[in-house]
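Q: Sequence in, structure out?
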Amino acid sequence: MYRVSVLQFEPKLLDKEANLMVAEELLSGLETDLVVLPELCTSGYVFQGVEEVMSMAEELPTGMFFEAMRELSAKQDMSIVYGFAELCEGTLYNSSVLINPKGDYYVYRKTHLFFREKFFFAPGNTGFRVFEAKGGIKVGMMVCFDWQFPEATKTLALRGAQIICHPSNLVLPWCQEAMRTRSLENRVFSITANRIGTETNGTMSHTFTGQSQILGTRGEVLAKLPVDTCETATVMINPLLAFDKSVSPENDLVKDRRPEFYQYQ
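A: Exactly. Output:
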């Protein structure tokens, strides 16, 4: 069995130190194998300009937040996934990172940018890859609006992902329910870590939907947090269930695919 957790909180805009303090407090003493935090949880979300994003960005493997999470991952023997503004060779990305207890880490850059994110970030160039988390469990990462595109989860599932880690800053009302379908149609576990609260910067304001969740391979809700609380939830899962793609004795979600009839362009 494998312990998976989701962490939900309200990042403070443009205050990395405060956000790190809250994250560390919520993670302190957490007994889990894998935990997922929200998108851009280091910085907040409602930026007015590139300068604000740049002031919050980290270039791995340096950076205050990254170094603290790497230390915490090793200390508490757990894999950590969180979303952050990444600076790489002068380019800004809306990224997530998987950090493992042994110190190895892997970055995913958001493929499908939402709304004003296009003003600040470059479209992700990593593609959808699968990495090993603690215990050799196969993990895929998506970020927020990637949920809207079924190809994202499908690609990760076909590449062997057992758990989809999904840092998010959700403002639209459909994602949590749609992710049940994503888990069901791919027979994978998924962890959507959303933020809470209303964030305002100048004339821009967003209200986030909370309701972070952990889903099973049949789309069943294993844990779901409220709309407006800072907390964590942990459940035990059997990751091997994600390798069972059968629907009936005669049907298999992978073997029954007929990609020659699917149009991708």
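Residues 157 and 186 are 6 Å apart (CA to CA).
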